[in-house]
Amino acid sequence: MRKIISFMHISLDGFVAGPNGEMNWIKVDEEIFDHVGERVSETDTALYGRVTYEMMQNYWPTAGDEPGASKHDIKHSKWYNKAHKLVLSKTMEDTGLTNTKIISDNLLDRINEIKHGSGSDILVFGSPTATHSLIQQNLIDGYWLFVNPIILGQGIPLFTDIKDQIKLKLLSTRQFTSGVTELNYTVDRQ
């Protein structure tokens, strides 16, 4: 069965964005891009909330074709254009979108159906609102977190309105020279 893995940059105090969605505090560099690129290349499906999908759709389809595009932009643009995209949205229409499926209702049933289908694990890229919905339905199977060395004090939290404990098992960690620490967890369903 396919797993849904939440991929997030997070502050030390648990925020995934500032109060107005700011992400300028996130540290990324070639070391992180190369590491993330390896794992992303192993998946064929991305899941986004509407806002993140629109942001990605405005950049990635042509990012690799731009003059002076970085190695990362070229590689991720190619991956993005081939990847299956799932978008959680109650307002988007599911018409004329390439490799994209809109999920607007019956989240639990629709996602479980996809998880039982063929393909690789599904990465949730950012998308805090979509992640909150998936957490509420107990649909997240793992967390791939990049803890940035900053305390924001306020913002959009990764975890909110949690009804029951979520037990995790640490799979791996990695420290990057930028001070970012990767934490890779699986949800312990025992």
UniProtKB/TrEMBL annotation:
Pfam families: RibD_C. GO terms for molecular function: 5-amino-6-(5-phosphoribosylamino)uracil reductase activity. SUPFAM superfamilies: Dihydrofolate reductase-like. Residues 2-180 form the Bacterial bifunctional deaminase-reductase C-terminal domain. One of its GO terms (biological process) is riboflavin biosynthetic process. InterPro entries: DHFR-like_dom_sf, RibDG_C, Riboflavin_Biosynth_HTPR. This is Dihydrofolate reductase. The lineage of its organism: Bacteria, Pseudomonadati, Bacteroidota, Chitinophagia, Chitinophagales.
